[in-house]
Design goal:
heterodimer, A: mainly alpha, 2 domains, 2 helices, flat, B: 579 residues, 3 domains, two-stranded antiparallel sheet, 73% helix, globular
Chain lengths: 82, 579
Amino acid sequence: MSGKTETSRTGRRVMRALPTLCALLLVGEIIIHRHAYFALEATPLFFALFGGVAACLVVGGSMLMSRLITRAPDYYGGDDDA
Amino acid sequence: MGAMMMLEAAFTMFLTMLLTIPGMMLIIGALAVPVLPLPARNAYMLVLIAISGWSVWHISPDETMTATLAGIDLILVRGEAITKPFALVFHIAAALNVIYAMHENAKITATAGLTYAGAAIAALFAGDFLTLFIYWELTTFASVFLVLAGDSSRAMRAAMRYLLMQVASGVILLAGAVLLWRAGAGFTITALDATTPAGFCILLAFGIKAGFPLLGGWLQDAYPEASPTGSVMLSAFTTKLAIYMLVICFAGFKPLIYIGLAMAVIPLFAALIENNLRRVLAIALVNQLGIMVVGIGIGSELAVNGVTAHAFASVLYKGLLFMSIGAVFMRTGTDQADALGGLSRQMPWTAAFCLIGALSIASMPLFSGFTTKALTIGAVAKQGELLVWLGLLFASVGVVLHTAVKLPYATFFAPNDKIKAEEAPLNMRVAMALAAGGCILIGLYPSALYALLPYEVSYKVWDSGHVLGELQLLAFAALIFALMVRRGIYPLHGARVVLYSDWLTRRVIPRIIIGLGEPLMKIWNALKDGSVALTLRALRTSEEASRATGLASGIASTGAAAGIFLAVFALILLIRVLM
């Protein structure tokens, strides 16, 4: 079995498992009471929503920043930095 | 007879210092490392570390050792409640480093590594800034050899920049210490006011080593250029020593909350787009240090416990991640994300250990990050700092993306059927297994670590609501990121250079120096040429005057010319000294 097939299979398994795990965690919200320090934290599904939104922001921010802060691999001149 | 007694007294003093000053045994013991053959060298280093660790474990909390040098009282050994956990984890890291590097016959790296560990341990126990300065500089000079072990011209250049920044930190520390002494406060290491010149200098010195914004470029510049074993050693000591010193001197200094928050959040973006995986780890290290600096700024008992526990766990999981990527680098010859992938079948043990490190840094319940970072985040919440708390949650999400998902995926699971590699050598796997075991142990049984913390821990980390919230945060962040990568919205990697704060020392500062240097050289050359012309003209005038008007006038003119010559010579000398 090639590495590609195996790793693709692992990726598919993870992609199948993640939504199931997320769904279970949402159900857990009904059963488990969360102690909150802030009123915002007490909002239902706060952590799930925050996780998803923050992931979008980090990825979006990285895509925007990549235009500003990425350069060609030889930017520092290979071995010669200055 | 007198000489014999003096010799005996000197030997007794040396032995006392060797046994009483923690870390000294490693520093002195390192001198024998180059002459020992393998495998005796490795056994010798492990025995030294074990004896040193044992003595630190049994050190009395009120143990002190003082000395007087040129009328200055030095406190060579002084333990605080926070010292023992740091000293303990430094010993563990030193031992893991020796095991990880056992396959190498690198005498310089081994000597430098042991000296570096010893100096860092000794620095933890320093009770005054002069003693600290000595060990502070020793960590610098020992660790620069680990960067040089990268054995490339890039590594050499990175090592020089690293040395420059580390020495700058030492010099600023010494300046701060002298200012403190002049203000009548002596050299004793104690809580300081960062708004005084002395306090500010010392904060700046610690800040350089702790990776403060714009000051920590050396970290992501040098660590990825070291050898695989060198970068593992580097990841453990310098930054944690700085964190320890910040706790001792600046706990509760509120601006640190915002400095730490900037350190925790800003690196996320760069780490996500970075292609060099060891650089990803170096940038992510700044993110972890940021969370600790926030805790230092909060300064409550819970926060200080959190910083200590987090630093302890971070040495293990960060070391584990550097070990796993270092093993991949050693086996494949690359640490570039776009060149890797598909190694999970070829290096299954390394992949498993990397995942344990990744889950630990991501604060997954049952792993060390969860039971340690929770204390700091809880301390922030207890202080009612909502925005800071949200910032730390945001930083936690970033860590999930760049270190817990991207790094293991790009290395071990991304499709790539071209790359071929063997599993890491047995000694590397043993070191990784021990570090991974530590991560799981702290995750499952945190009370063992909590017992070492400076204050009693009453925080309930295993609250079911807290576990659920953390799992939701991690799982939803991972799901959204995986979907974005899978649907091609986010290209995971590509060959590129990411400009980060090391850009300042690699590009901006050299350009400024060159830019300033050229006009200065022009002024210098103009002054030099002008002065030579002026002198020649004065001499010629004098000669002509003497020929026309006689000896007396000639002497006067020659005297004037000599005066001009001397003045110009003094000017040239002055400019040369200034430049």
